[in-house]
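Study the following:
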Amino acid sequence: MIGGSYYHRPQGTATQWLGYNPKLVIHCITAMVSPEIVRTVYASWLASRQAVFTVLDSHFDAGRAFQALVALRQGHSARPNARLRYLAVTEVSELSLPWAVLNGKQVPGLHFMNWPEFNVELHLWVGNTKAALQEFQGSFDAVLEPDAHRQYGRRMVRQPLAMHQTESVAVVGAGIAGSSVALALCQRGVQVHLYDQGNGPATGASGNWVGAFHPHITRGDSPLSRLSRLGFEHTVQALNTLTEQGFLQKDEDWATPGHLQTVPVDEAERTRETLLQLAFPESLVRWAEPNSLLPTPLGGLYFPQGGWVKPARWVHANLQACGSLLTTHYNTPVHDLTDLREQHDAVVVCSAEKSIVLAPIEGAKVGVVKGQISKLQAAVQPSVVLSGESYAIAPPRENWLVLGATYERPVLDLNSTPEADELNVARFRAAFPDWQLGNLIDHRCAVRAVWHDRLPAIGPVPNMPGVFMSTGFASRGLLWAALGGWLVADHCLGQPLESKLLGKITPRGARA
């Protein structure tokens, strides 16, 4: 039996007790949602004049209500003004959904899917409902919940925020962080002015020939690890979308052949114990015995979906996808935000180590690390991305291999040195002693900005209204860029996802 009822909660005693007056509350008698209820939610979404229309579904299961909403969107030519933000909760870890990235066993925690062509995004929490209600802390326009008035009460459901009128945003920095912010804003219809001191985009670390991305694993599944999985999903979906739009070519500009992170012999046993404790599906990570994937005496973590991307190509693709809403200002160093704050509705600082200079934060501790990468002729190309003692990446359609990167402190200059090349080669040979390497072709240096806790800084800058950041990526810029772009764009529009996990990367000072 499929049942349910829809009601707009009237003013009165119950409303006063709950402390909210949401536009819609869907009270389901069973876990199934009737087509009438789905059509009601769709009509309310279509009629919404907000930037974001948020639905909470605490009984996602196989996602029937969500699939029905998307089907209605596909069947109607009218594009909703509001973006549908669907917050979903399921305690079922083994999912079978019509979206490949979410099929199979899922890791507990937050997952993300985006359909920009439908103006729809799904935020899926895998785990118990209590934890999900602590994670999703914002306001909802519609609730699919068997006992909504009992579950949410005063804290969880409240009047949605009014839409911010943001028409023009200045973005400082034309690397992977800034270009991702620019694209996310342009996708929401915002005019973006992009400023950079270089004579074009991707002149800093984003100009590296190639870089790697994969989730991060820690014994206690730290916030860094949970955020890295979320960032990984954002990255893969962003690259796929740009590929579908014709701005990137898979296997030429990026690919996901898998990633092997070798582990020193004295850490192997503890790492294997960590994998057993976490019990993650092998589709995310598994242990690789020595010599099982490649000739190495070291075991390691194998990420089947790990990949590589040419960062400069990603930056150019982001900027191309922005279309006419983007205006670029190269050869334009920014030393102060005063003028930009007066000229635009918001300013986003994405200039790596210079971000904290333009937008100071009390107590913030940001370090700078120099890294040199070495490009060699590829005598033999590894079939997967390698990291551990040293990373090695060889796009299959190229005749070169990139090794690196060094970690050099203090940063005295950005000059390349033979010693750094030798160190990159030596570290690689420690893991792959029999691997044949070609001659050195080139080398390149850049710096990384590292926040005190090694997490990125993404969101509003304290005590500077209208100023935001997407920076502090350290050596994981390819994991944080797409997530940062999406998150900052929502902040600029006054409609951020109020998430407990995402709150950990808000720009911040170090704890005393």
Notes: The two ends are 57 Å apart (CA to CA). Residues 1-31, 147-163 have pLDDT under 50 and may be disordered. The chain is about 30% helix and 25% strand. The chain has four domains: 5-156, 164-257+306-364+453-512, 259-304, 366-451.
